[in-house]
Amino acid sequence: MSTRTDARAQLDLPGQAAMAHGPHDLGGMYVMHYAFRRDLGRFASAVRRTPLEDTAAWRSLAARWERFGTTLHHHHTIEDTTIWPLLLAHVDAAVDAAGRATLEAMEAEHELIDPLLDSCATGFTAMAFAPDAAARDRLAERVTAARDRLGEHLAHEETEALPLAQRHLTTAEWAAAERAAQSGHGLREMPFLLPWAAHGLSDEQVSAAFGEGGRAFGVLLRLTRGRFERAERAAFRYA
Ligand SMILES: [Fe+2]
Question: How many angstroms separate the CA atoms of 197 and 178, rounded?
Answer without folding.
Answer: 15
